Structure formats: C-alpha cells, structure tokens
Amino acid sequence: MDFPIEAIRGRFPALSLTDGGRRRVYLDNPAGTQVPRAVADAVSRCLLTTNANLGGFFETTVAAQKVVDDAHAAMADFLGAASPQEIIIGANMTTLTYHMSRTLGRAMKSGDEIIVTRMDHEGNVSPWLQLAEDLGLVVRWLAFDERSWQVEEAALSALLSDKTRLVALNYASNLTGSINRVKALTAIAKQAGALVYVDAVQFAPHGLVDVQNLGCDFLACSAYKFFGPHMGILWGRRDVIDALKPYKCRCSSNGLPERFELGTPQIELMAGLTAAVDYFADLGAAAGEGGSRRASIARAFELSIAYENVLAQRLIDRLSDIEGLTIHGITDPSRVGERVPTVSFTVDGMVPETIVGQMNAENIFLWSGHNYAWEIVHQLGIPAEEGVVRIGIAHYNNAAEIDETLESVHRVIAMLRQERS
C-alpha cells in the first residue's frame, strides 16, 4: 500500500499556513512536530468540558479522571507496556529523568558506577552526572563508533563491572540519526546486574517501541516529538518501580503511577496525548489493520518507516554531491534502516548558523547548533558553539519539500562561497 501522504497532510492544519503568501516547510521536527487537528481539538474539548481537578464525585472531576486513565492506557499501547500502571506522565523527558535519577540514587552509594554515552542528548547525561557528583559515584563514558555511528556491544562490555548500577542509553541520536541496538546492549548490561535507562525521544516518532521486548527497565519519550502536546512519558518496569520510594508529598497517593506524578496533572494535554496515539492507530486502521490499537499502531509504523526512509535517502544522496559538505551519520543506502530521518551536516569554512539563517529566510524551518547533543559534537571535534545544520523529516513531509530544501542548500552554499571569494 502506498503511503497516503496527501490525506495525512490534510490532517495537519499547520501545513497549510503561509507567511506573506510563502509556504512553510517544516523540517525542524527533531525539536518538535506539528499536530493533527484531532490533537488540538482534544485539548480544547477537555478544557471546555472536562476542566476540574481529580478526586471528587461530581461530573467534571469524574470525566477528568477518565482523561487521565485513557492517556496512560494509550501510552501503554504505544510503548507495548504490560500495564498502564507502568506509564508515568510528566512535564518533559528531562524533568522526568531528573526526578527518576534522584529516586534511583537512594539505593546507590559512593564508589558505585554508572555508564553514560557520548551519543546521548544531555537530558540523559546531565541528570546522571549530577547524581554522581552528589553521591560520589564513578562515571564511565561509553563512546560511539565513528565508523558504524552506533554504540557497539564490545565497547559496553569493556566498561561494565560488578559495581555498575545503571547504564543510560539512547535509542536514536538527535544529531546523527543513528539507531542503537538497544535490545542487545540491554542484555549485556542486565547480565552485569545493571539497570538500563533508555532515551527514546528521537526514536519514538519513527519506529515502533516494544519495551517488553527490549528488556530495559526504563524508557522515556516526548509526545511533542510524535505529533502530540508538550509532555514527557516515562515507562518503568512494574517490578522495578514498585520497589522504589520516590520524592513526593507525604499525603499524596502511594499508588502506581500516581506516586511518581507530582502535583496536579496536565489533564488537557493528556487528552491531546491520547489523540496523538489514536492518530497512529487511525493510520494503521485505514491501511486495513483490524486488530487492537497496538496492532494498528504497528501497521502505521510499517508504512511510515518505508516512506520516511525513501525521503531520507533522497536527502542524503543529494547532499553528498556537494563538495566540502560532510554528513555526520550513516549514509550507506543499505543501512538506511539503521537511522531515523534526521540528517546533520557541516560545510568546510562555513558557520552552520549562517546557512540556516539564509534557509529560514526562505521559510524552510530547520536548526543549527549542538542541539543538546553536547557529547557528540565534542567526540567529533565539531566546535560546540557552531554545531551542525540539522534537517529532520517527519512523515507529513513530502518529496517536493525535500527537493525544494535541497535546491535551497545548493543555492545558499554557492552564494556564500561566492561572497567569500
């Protein structure tokens, strides 16, 4: 079945907006995607008809509790969790990771070891570094291989010891786009008795997450990266989180997941979160999947992965034709399935911000900088104050937008070279 791109684009109102008659090309997606109308409608409907705090017996509070319950059930389906009780919803991935790091730190002591990678977003690095500083933990750094662009199993094995308490991994890089073999890495870490905490923020928009199959203990993602509202979601394995004592108010619930969700929840955004998950399920159902919501989500990803991979390789191939341009990530067409469609590059003698500024002026939305991939730019020797040009495809982008963007890249680089000569 062909990917129904025009029907999909019609579900995103932002894609039809113009500025002074000029179309918008959204390729800033690794930093946050646009939302289907159904997501915005769900948020609005909740605020207008279900606006109450939780815990009462009157109509709006009962309805609000259902919104909260539905969001946890939706994310359990999205991530393949065993139960909605394993789903913790909060402000964002970074905040949730800081909170969980402090909770896990209660069982750690000076001299214990943790492993962090040089491939992660800072949201899965700084919380652990600061925990180590507070408790006197030993930090082991896990570099990525600059030939495969992935974290290799042998490199992880070499760092593990009987003192390793936690390994923080990322599923896919927000700069290189590379996908790690998380299941294999997790199995190695678990054999050493370590907990595994996975940042799936960049993977979740582009591939089906199956937390039970991965074998990890925690996995975090962000709804606003997969067409939802600004929220973070953390899955925790039931037997692990059930034994934890989180920082919380004395009189708040000790139930799961409530004891990890501090304060009044963002109920209206949870309504939007369910709508975002159902958007994926609707795509799968439209493709003929008649089973469960989880099965429909899986079918949607089958279609979107195949579609995105074609666009990503089209982008990579034509960028590779530009003299002096270096793509930092997998470029081999036979390995396109080992990356998400986020493509970062630098050009000899040019500051990325200058390129991006010119393209933004053409209403092509993309980013420059380190993009919080702080360790990646340092490992690669890229000046952190400059970073890279980053182009990030979502499944609502089309081939015409990619071609237009490529023309802009070629034109802008040629213009800047002429100005410099």
UniProtKB/TrEMBL annotation:
Leader peptide range in chain numbering: none
A Pfam family that the UniProt record links to this protein: Aminotran_5
Keyword field contains Transmembrane: no
Domain called Aminotransferase class V: residue spans: 25-403
Domain of life of the native organism: Bacteria
PANTHER family: CYSTEINE DESULFURASE, PYRIDOXAL PHOSPHATE (PLP)-DEPENDENT ASPARTATE AMINOTRANSFERASE SUPERFAMILY
NCBIfam families recorded: am_tr_V_VC1184
Protein name: Cysteine desulfurase-like protein
